[in-house]
């Protein structure tokens, strides 16, 4: 009888869990992947999307199960802070990258040394140079397209950050709207580039070339855009075992502080146990700390669940003077980066602005009906405004704050497990940045495009980019894991994903989470 059920057990089957599992399986290790939700084929999600009455609800095509609730599930997340935290996540094989915009940014060297560079926030316990080759590997693994000659800092106007290899795929061409916007913004001192993303700009790793269906969210119908199920399938082909509908709720610890077993429940509440040499926690940034807190492990620093960060969003909706015709091609392509980096970050947060490229017929029609516009004028106004509709979405970095945290609620879910209790707030650092954008930058955008401001949404809108909650550092007294994503408290427990990042920057965190995972997983191979 085998001493262990597997060499490694990976909890979570999203992009992070899938990459960890496939890397370990490729190295010849026996791997079990546990996923709380079910396996759902792409065609079924596409059919559900096509039959929705409200296509603006990106979560609706996906399962919302009483044993595995998703984003927006009624009464699952308990909100106890001043800001309601609508954490975006899906529980199914492949995870939340089923419905994302696909943005895959590297951090800047200064993002990783925020405290050293600007005197605010925290530093990563490793440098950009230490992570760079794993960025290269991550870009190849998930298939990123981008322009390697672009300045992604907005400050240098030369290729930056440093790259040892170009993007694996060339950037997709801008559509008419984004090309016209770049021309106008650049002429007025705003630095606009093609956003690196994981859509296939040519056939890549069994993915067809993007044909611009314009519904990357909630689902790429042809599978051109990367989703985490790709690596899960790859891991299975390499010998890994996937167990879906397995809700992990407890880790056991034994002699020397080592984790000895993981317990999970089936949808009917039956409890099962598995053993392994090494355990990888790669669940969502709210679910991983929830499991650790329930298990009373990895928390000698009292930092598990703390330092929850996101990209705080707000937006400007306006029309342009000229026709721009949004709705052709990917839903997001551009990034305005003039305020991403520089000395201002000691007082103002890093920023990224973006104009959504979703087809605007629905929001335009809703706006006109609310204004009382009826036929025959309605059709003419829809045609006119849909060609000129602009939605500037601003994301800004949030500093780590131990006050922002997930705890265990006294309320229980269907399986009798605690629901997550989230306290979320902002500081003056983020607030004064928002006020500056609304008072200075948004009026400038209106002057450039010469249209009408429809509305400014100044209420904070977390962008479903969960960061922190199992923060990494170089001191076990104020961090959960070291730079190798290893728990300070348990030598055979690794926590992987964006929850380990000690800084949010202003850009999407997925690629950095993948790079940190590859770095940690390669180092782990020799230990198994």
CATH names the topology of the largest domain as: FAD/NAD(P)-binding domain
Helix content: 10-25%
What CATH architecture of the largest domain would you give?
Answer: 3-Layer(bba) Sandwich
Task: Write out the CATH superfamily name of the largest domain.
Answer: FAD/NAD(P)-binding domain
pLDDT < 50 stretches:
none
Query: What does the largest sheet look like?
Result: 7 strands, mixed
Based on the structure, what is the oligomeric state of the protein chains? single chain
How many domains make up the 3D coordinates? 2
What is the residue-averaged pLDDT? 95
Principal-axes geometry comes out as: globular
Notes on the structure:
This protein has 528 residues and is of the alpha/beta class. It folds into two domains: 1-144 and 203-310 and 401-426 and 467-528, FAD/NAD(P)-binding domain, CATH 3.50.50.60; 172-195 and 312-396 and 428-462, 2-Layer Sandwich (Cholesterol Oxidase, domain 2), CATH 3.30.410. It has helices at residues 15-26, 42-50, 114-118, 128-142, 176-186, 229-237, 287-295, 361-370, 377-386, 428-449, 510-525; strands at 6-11, 31-34, 78-79, 145-146, 169-170, 192-194, 241-243, 247-253, 259-265, 271-281, 312-319, 334-336, 351-355, 389-396, 405-412, 418-423, 453-462, 493-495. The strands form five sheets. Strands 1, 2, 7, 8, 9, 10 and 18 form a seven-stranded mixed beta sheet that branches. Strand 9 and strand 10 (271-281) form a beta hairpin. The longest helix is centred in the C-terminal third of the chain and has 22 residues, at 428-449. It is globular and about 70 Å long.
